[in-house]
Structures
1.
Amino acid sequence: MRATYIYGAGDVRVITAPDPKLIESTDAVVRITRACVCGSDLHPFHSMPADADARPIGHEFIGVVEELGKDVATLKVGDFVIAPFAYSDGTCEFCLEGLQTSCIHGGYWGNGGITGGQAEAVRVPFADGTLVKVPGTVDESQYAGLLTLSDVYATGWHAAYKARIAPGQTVTVIGDGAVGLLAVLSAKQMGAERIILMGRHKARTDLGIHFGATDVVAERGEEGIALVRELTGGSGSHAVLEAVGFMPAYEQALGVVRAGGVISRVGVPQYENAPVGRGSLFGKNVGLVGGVAPARAYIEQLLPAVLDGTVNPGLVFDQTVKLEQTPDGYTAMDERTALKVMVDPT
Amino acid sequence: MRATYIYGAGDVRVITAPDPKLIESTDAVVRITRACVCGSDLHPFHSMPADADARPIGHEFIGVVEELGKDVATLKVGDFVIAPFAYSDGTCEFCLEGLQTSCIHGGYWGNGGITGGQAEAVRVPFADGTLVKVPGTVDESQYAGLLTLSDVYATGWHAAYKARIAPGQTVTVIGDGAVGLLAVLSAKQMGAERIILMGRHKARTDLGIHFGATDVVAERGEEGIALVRELTGGSGSHAVLEAVGFMPAYEQALGVVRAGGVISRVGVPQYENAPVGRGSLFGKNVGLVGGVAPARAYIEQLLPAVLDGTVNPGLVFDQTVKLEQTPDGYTAMDERTALKVMVDPT
C-alpha cells in the first residue's frame, strides 16, 4: 500500500509500505476513507532530527472495516468506523473510567509497529475497544464532520468538558486552530454565555464566530490580556481553554482567568515548567486541568449531532489533497494557507 | 491592650498596643477568647528580615463581640463569633461565589492597619461579612473545635472539596501538620474509602488514623512514592491533598497521583515554577487545584458537627499558652514539640 512517512524536519514522503495484516485476534484492518493532517504533526515536521528513523505518520482517520480477527465481537466487515487518535483495549480500569489515553495496553498510531493514518489502510489493535461504528449509510458529505471526531472536535470538547463549563459562564478560548475553534463550538454547546476567541487569522476567527464566539481579540500578550479583562468587567474569564501549547499562551491564560476559575489545556505543552505558585494559580484559586484528550470517550456522545447536522465541525477543513499530495498538505498547514487539510487515499 | 508582634526572624514579642476602636460603621470590635499559632506564621518566623517594620501577627481567633458599628445588621454585642483567617465584605461578586479570599475589599489580619489575632482584642472590618455567630451557649470545652474553623479545618476541607472527593475513592494526604490531619478528616467525611497519610511524626499520624487514615507512609521521596503506588495496586491515588507547600511535597504528589486524578494544594507554595507539562500533569490528565482557602465559605456548613461532637477537629491542639507566652508557642511549633499551640489571652 501507499503510506505517509516522516523522515525528518520538513521531509514527509508517501512511500510504498507493506500491506497491513491481522496479527492479534483482536485486530481489525481498516481501509481508510479519509485522513487528515494535525497541528501536532507539525511538531516533528519542525523538529525531527534528520538522523532519526523514518516513521509512519497520521493519527486521524475514518474508514471501512476490511478484515477482522476472530475475537472481535462488535464489528462486521464493511462497517464504517471512526478511529480516535489513540488505540485502547476498552476493558482496563482507565478505559472504563473514560480515560482511554491512559489505557494500560493502548498506544498511538505510527508508534511501536502500528502504522499511521495518512495511508491507504491500517492495522487497528483492540478493534472492539478502539473503533466506533457509524450507524446507517454514510454519505461523502458527512466525511469531514465524522473525521473531526477522531481528534480535533473531541479534543476541543475535552477542553470544555474538563473545565466543567456551566451555562451562563464566560469562556475565553486561546488559539484559532481547528482545536480552538471546536473548543468554541463545545463551549457553546455546554451553554457558555460569552465566548471570547483570542486569535488573529480573520478567516479562522470568522469561523469561530459561526461556531459561537461572541467576541474576538486579535491582540496578544499584555495588550490581549487587558482587552479580555475589559470585556469581562475587570474580573476575567471563568474558564480559559488553551489550545496552543506554547508558553505565551499559558501566560495569556494566567492573565485572563478569573479568581476561582480554571485553565483547561489541550494544546500539547512545549514546556515542562510553568508558574503555578502564589502569584499565578494558588493565590487566586485557579485550577489547571486538561491533557491528552481521550477522544474515544466522547465519540458516541458527539456523533448524533454531527450525523443529523445540528453541528458542523467539518467546516474546519478548508483543503483536501490526494494521498500522494500529503506533503503539500503539511506545507499548506505549516504556512497557514490551510486551516486543516483532509487527505483522500481512495 | 496586649498584642503579639513579629519583629524579625525568631523575634516574636507581646507588647502593649493601642486598644482597637471602631473606625468604619461596618466594623466590630471583638474581645478574643482564644487564638492560635499557625504553621504559616512560621514562615516569617524563619525568614522575616530584621530591618522590616514590626507588625501584628495571628490570623485565627474566636471571641465575643464587644462593640458594633451602626451599620452592622446581623450581630449583637455579646455574640460569640468565629473569624476566618481573611476578612471579607460578604457582598462582592467573589464573596457571593464563596471565594471570600478574593473579596474585592477584603484582606488579611495583621496587614494594612488591621491588627492581628494573637491579642486581647481586634477590630474586625465588614463584621457582617466576616464573622460567623455561634448559636446557643458556648462551653470552654468547645473552644478548640470552634477555633479550627478559623483556618486549619476549613483549609483541610478546602483541599478535599476542591479535589471533589467522591465516595469510594483513594486519597493520599501529604503532610501531618494540623491542616493535613484535618484534610484526612474532611476526606473521610466526604466518603473516601482509603486514605493514605504521608507523614513521619508518630503522634501526629496516630491522630491521623483517629481522623480516618487507613494507611500511614512515613517514607518520603522515591521510596514513599513507591510505597503509595504499591498500596494502590500500581495506579496511584485518585486525589492527592498537598498540605505542605515545599517542592518535594509537590514532586511527591506528582509521583503518587493516578492518571486522571487531581492534586489539590493548600500548603502555601514556597516556589513559583513547577513541572506541569507532558511528563507531569498533561500526559496523565492530572488536574492541579486548590489555593488559599476561603474559610468563610465553609464555617456555617462545618459548624453543626463540631458543636454536636460528631467530629472533634480540636484534637489538633496539644498545647495551650497564655498570651504573654505566645513566643514560647512559636518555639514549640518550630521545634515540633507541639503540633498546634492555642493562645489564651483572657
2.
Amino acid sequence: MTATRSVLASQATDYPRWFQDVIAKAELADNGPVRGTMVVRPYGYGIWELLQEAMNRRIKATGAQNAYFPLLIPESYLQREAEHVEGFSPELAVVTHAGGKQLEEPAVIRPTSETVVGEYLSKWIQSYRDLPLLLNQWANVVRWELRPRLFLRTTEFLWQEGHTAHATSEDARAFATKILYDVYRDVMVNVLAIPVVTGRKTRRERFAGAINTMTLEAMTGDGKALQMGTSHELGQNFARAFDISYLSSAGSRELAWTTSWGSTTRMVGGLIMVHGDDAGLRVPPAVAPTQVVVLAVKEEAIAAARGIADELSAAGLRVTVDDRTDQPFGRRAVNWELKGVPIRIELGPRDLAADVATVVRRLRDSDKTAVARADLTRTVVAAIEADQDHLLAEATARQAARITAVRTVDEAIEAAASGWATLPYDAVGEQGEDRLAESAVTVRCLQRPDGTLPLDDHEPDLVAYVARSY
Amino acid sequence: MTATRSVLASQATDYPRWFQDVIAKAELADNGPVRGTMVVRPYGYGIWELLQEAMNRRIKATGAQNAYFPLLIPESYLQREAEHVEGFSPELAVVTHAGGKQLEEPAVIRPTSETVVGEYLSKWIQSYRDLPLLLNQWANVVRWELRPRLFLRTTEFLWQEGHTAHATSEDARAFATKILYDVYRDVMVNVLAIPVVTGRKTRRERFAGAINTMTLEAMTGDGKALQMGTSHELGQNFARAFDISYLSSAGSRELAWTTSWGSTTRMVGGLIMVHGDDAGLRVPPAVAPTQVVVLAVKEEAIAAARGIADELSAAGLRVTVDDRTDQPFGRRAVNWELKGVPIRIELGPRDLAADVATVVRRLRDSDKTAVARADLTRTVVAAIEADQDHLLAEATARQAARITAVRTVDEAIEAAASGWATLPYDAVGEQGEDRLAESAVTVRCLQRPDGTLPLDDHEPDLVAYVARSY
C-alpha cells in the first residue's frame, strides 16, 4: 500500500471531507465563482462524456430524438401548472435585465423544461399520427441550492431531460417504465457498475406536477441513499396546462399524456461515493477516460512503455503513458491510484531485464503481479473485463449487507443510522413519513413484494425502502 | 420538378423570407418564447450533432480536452479586462434574483467564457510543465441581440469555445492558427462542403480583448458574407487581468499567452444559405441525419423498401423508410426535397415489376433514374460520395464567380451589392472602413497576396475582402 491515505481524509473518520478531498485531488471538479456552481475539470468531464455517450445511445434506441429548447423561460409559463410552480419557485434564478434594459417580463433560467417543451408539443402535435412524440435534450439547468455540494447538488448542473407525449395513459406509463429499466438501470448497473433499487416515490417525494415518479436509488459508501435518476408520468397535468391535444383516429379531440425523465452529473457523484475507497477514486472501466496507465519508472523504459501502450490501444483500450521520469515515481503512482485508473502497468529496469511488466489492479487489491511481456495484452484485456464485473459484484454485496428488514418506523430510523431499512409501507403512512423526516430519514421508494413497480401508493403489502439521503 | 416552390418564397424574390421559410418547412427550428431565442427541432439538431461530432473529433486530435465552466459569471469578472467588458456589456443578460432573494453581486449569463476560464487557468497553471494547457467546452451562451435571426444571430446559441494557455507568443499563435486551418477550415470544407476565405480581421472587427482575430468567411446564396468561426490570439491581455503566470524552467515567473476560438450553431445557418435552393434545403451527406430516404409509393412496396433500407444501412448509410402510404405520394416527396435529403429512392408497383428502383439525387439535378435493384447499393454509395464533392465544387465555383477585384472603396461598395470585392487594403485604411460602414459593408478579412495570414494589419500589399454580411 502507498502513502495515498495521508492526502485524503479517511472515509470512516469524515466521509463528507473524504468526498471533497477525492474531487479536489483527483482533479474532477472545482467550486465555481458563483456560490454553488461547479467547474468540471477534464478528468471529471471525461468520465461524464463516456457516461453521456452510453446514455445517449440507449435513449436513441428507444426512438427518442434529441432537440434543444431555450435556457430562458418566461416566468408566466411556470405558473400554468400549479404544483410545478409551487415546487420550483423557491429555486429559480431570474433574469430581470438584458441588453442594458429591464425586461418587460422577467425570464427564469430553466430549472427543468416541462413548461417550455409543453408549449411546443402543443404546436407540433395535431393528430394521433404525431404520437408518440419522443424528445430528449442534453442541457444545463439551474436550481438555487441552499446546501450545495459538488456533483451531488450544484446550483447549475448538466443533465439529459426527456419529454414525451402519448395517446394513452398506458402508453405513457410503458414508456416512462422503459426509460427507468432499459435506459437508466442498464447504464447504472452495466456501465457505472452501480446496483440500484428501483421503485415508486411516495406522494411526498414526487416530482412537482407528476402523478407518478419512479426512481433509482444507489447506496453510498456511508450507507445513505443517492437518487440517481427519475422517470415521471405527468398524467394530463401539463397537457391540460399547455393544451397538448390531438385529433384521434375517430375524429375527436383528446388530451395527450406526457412523461419526463432526467439523469444528471450527480451520477458522477454516485460513482465516487459507491466505488471510492481510502486511496481515492475507483473508476469502472466502461467510463474510465484512462483504463490503463503505463508508467515508465526510469527514462530508459519510456520507449518500451510506449510500445506497450500502442499494443493495448490497438486492442481497443484507452491508454495513457506516464513518462514524467523527472518526477518521483512514488508520487506519480499515488496520483494514478487517486484517480482510480483501473490498471496501472509499471515498467522499470528490472522489469525490462526480466521481460515482464508489473501490473497493479486498482479495482481489486492493488497487489503487484509480474506478467510476462508476451501475455500482457491478453492479461490486461481480461482484467479490465473482470474488474468491471468485480466492482458491480462488490457494490451489490455491500448494498445487500447494509439493508435491514424492520417492522416499525422507530426501528427504521435506527437502522438508517448506518444503512437502509425496508419495512411494510402500511407501518409508515403519511404520518410515519413526518416522523422519519424529523430524523432526516425519508422513504426512498416503494416496491411490491416481488420488487416490481406498484401502480399506486395504496396497493396492499408494499415495501418501503427507508434511508438518509444526499 | 415538384410543387415545392409554392411553399417557399423564391431566393431571387425575397431571400430573407426564403431563409425563414426553409427553416420552418424543413422543421429545423422555431422561435423560442423569449425574444431572440431558438428551439432547435430534431431535424436541425440532428445536423448539429453530426457537425459537432466532426468538430469534436478534430479538436481532440489537437490535444485539447473538454471541460465545463459555469453558466453564471460574477459581473466583476468581466470588468477586469477593459476592452472585453466594453465589447460585451451591451449584450449581457443579468441574473439579479435567485432562490427568492436579491443577489449580493449580480451574475451575468456567460456571453463567452474567457473571464471565468482565466480565473481557473490562473489556479491550475503553476509551472512551465503545465503548459500548454488546452481546453474546450461545448456550451450555450447568451448575447442579447437587437435583430435576432434563427441560427444566424440568436440571443442564446450553442457553440464550442476553446481556451488555451501557452509559454510563448509563437506557440499561442501557432495553436490558434492550427485551430483555424486543421479544425475549422477542415470541417467547413470537408464536412459542410462550404468553401471559406480565411484571413485576419482588421482592428475594428477584432474580438473584444484580442490582439489578433482570424476568421473564416462563407458566401451566402445572396452574395453576402457569413462569419463561420473565429480563432483569437489574446496576447497577454487576459493573462495580465487574471494573473495567468508560470514558473519558467529558468526559475522566473512569466505571464502566459492565451488563445480562444469558437464555432456555433450559426454554421447550420451557413449550411442552409450556402447550399439551399428554391426547392428547399440541400444537406451535405456528411452531416445529413438521413442520407437516403426510401419511399414506398404504395403499401405493397413497403416490405421491399425496408429490404433496401436494411441493405443500405448495412453499407454504412443513414437511411429512413417513408411508409406513410396513407398520405399523398407527391406531398411526401416534396417534403423530403424540402428537407434536402441527398438521395431519394422511390419504390412503386412499376419499379417492383421491373426489378428497379427510382433514384433521385437532390444535390444534383433531381432527375429520376431507374437503377437495377442489384446495382442499387453500389450506385447509392457512389452517389453519396460524389454528391458531397459536387456540392463543394458547386459552392466553390459560385463563390469565385461572385468575387470582383476592384481598386477603390467606391467600387468595392458597388461590387458588394451583389457579391464580394477584393481590393488593396492600402486603398481602404481606417477611414475607408468608416465609409464602407455607411453602406453596411465591412472588411471581412485581410490576406497576404498569396492567401496566407498577415502577422499584423500594417504589412504591405495586403488584400482586403469586402462584403455585406449577416
